[in-house]
Amino acid sequence: MESLLRIDGLEVSFGGLSALDAVSLSVRPGEVLGVIGPNGAGKTTLFNAVCGFVRPAAGTLHWQDRALPWPRPHQLARLGIARTLQGLGLFPRLTVLENVMVGATRHARAGFASALLGLPRSDRDERLLRHRSLAVLRELGAEDAAGRLPGELPYGVQKQVALARALVGEPRLLLLDEPASGLSEDGMRELGEVISGLRERMSVILVEHHMDLVMRVCDRVLVLDFGKVIAYGTPDEVRDDPLVTEAYLGDEVTEGTPAPADTAAPAAPGSREESSRA
Ligand SMILES: Nc1ncnc2c1ncn2[C@@H]1O[C@H](COP(=O)(O)OP(=O)(O)OP(=O)(O)O)[C@@H](O)[C@H]1O
After folding, report:
1. For position 215, what pLDDT does the model report?
2. pLDDT of amino acid 195
3. With 142 labelled, which of 111, 130, 159, 179 sits at a CA distance of 20 to 30 A?
4. Is residue 85 situated within a structural domain?
């Protein structure tokens, strides 16, 4: 298989605004692909197109080298595509373990999901699901939180739970939307190690404003600006590309420095960010 996911000529518009314009990319098996770009560049819209939350005006999608219609949200788990959201999206009244188990519907023929719906379930399926969910929490170092409610836990642990929920279905492609936001330096380092370790089992697309993390863990990086791909290559190639530096308001993109978009206060009148959202 040459690519797990390939997208060609993707176009998405909202009214008169072109949010994605002729975007093409591919993700190889076991690859971590970074997607970066200033606020409003189209990163989340790209995820939304892959996940069926927006309908592309044009573009084709290949999954495991086979042409497919753009997936609908309910087809993602069956294909093996999981996503974490910018927000955490955890259920506040379910324990951490239950939150993770909810993510495993791909593997659970019957079980927690059906239990929630009051359907007959197999005890064996639920035991397996519980076992696998605990194993993923352990892998991420959050096993101790299994019986707690999300609201009782530090933000960094809640983020681990959200990641565990995406991982427990053993996806082939994991879409990570700003997983480092709100994390401490230590949390970010651990996250980098986790993402690097996922390569053996899946491909990852990482949307992230923290350049140091992107440059450290990604095999290739795609840079969007105003919905267009302005650079696509290895971290070194992208870092040295003057178009990329320019897109970030002329600020130098260096290791250890978050992109300006990450630290920016609300957009100043007439700023690049404000005009991109106009
Ligand atoms: N549902 C929508 N309706 C109208 N415009 C939208 C919608 N979603 C996104 N947009 C616009 O499309 C463009 C791309 O937005 P998108 O959220 O994909 O950017 P982004 O790169 O993810 O930004 P950020 O880094 O701030 O999350 C922006 O101009 C945004 O205002």
Report:
1. 94
2. 95
3. 111
4. no
Residues 121-137 have a mean pLDDT of 83
> Can you give the CATH number for the domain in which 197 is found?
3.40.50.300
- The residue range of the domain holding 158 is 91-170
Instruction: Look at residues 106, 139, 170 and tell me which one is the last residue of a structural domain.
Output: 170
Distance (Å, rounded) from C-alpha 246 to C-alpha 261?
A: 13
Domain count, the chain: 2
**pLDDT surpassing 80 at residue 270:** no
Instruction: Clarify whether residues 55 and 109 are in a common domain.
Output: no
What is the CA(20)–ligand 1 centre distance, in A?
Answer: 10
116 Cα to the center of ligand 1, angstroms? 34
Question: Residue 6's pLDDT is what?
Answer: 97
Asked if residue 48 has its Cβ within 6 Å of ligand 1, the reply is: no
| Ligand 1 contact via 14 beta carbon (within 6 Å) | yes
Q: Which of 60, 53, 51 is nearest to 171 (CA)?
A: 51
pTM of the model: 0.84
Q: Is position 8 within any domain?
A: yes
Q: What interface predicted TM-score (ipTM) does this complex get?
A: 0.96
69: which DSSP letter? Answer: P
Same domain, 136 and 163: yes
Residue 86 belongs to some domain of the structure: no
- Ligand 1, atom 2: nearest CA belongs to which residue? 14
CA angle 54, 7, 239 (to 5 degrees): 105
CA of 227 to the centre of ligand 1 (A): 9
Q: Angle formed by the axes of helices 185-198 and 155-167, to 10°?
A: 10
As separate numbers, helices (DSSP H) first and strands (DSSP E) second, the chain gives 12, 10
Ligand 1 atom at minimal distance to the Cα of residue 227: 14
If you take atom 31 of ligand 1, which residue's CA is the nearest one?
Answer: 277
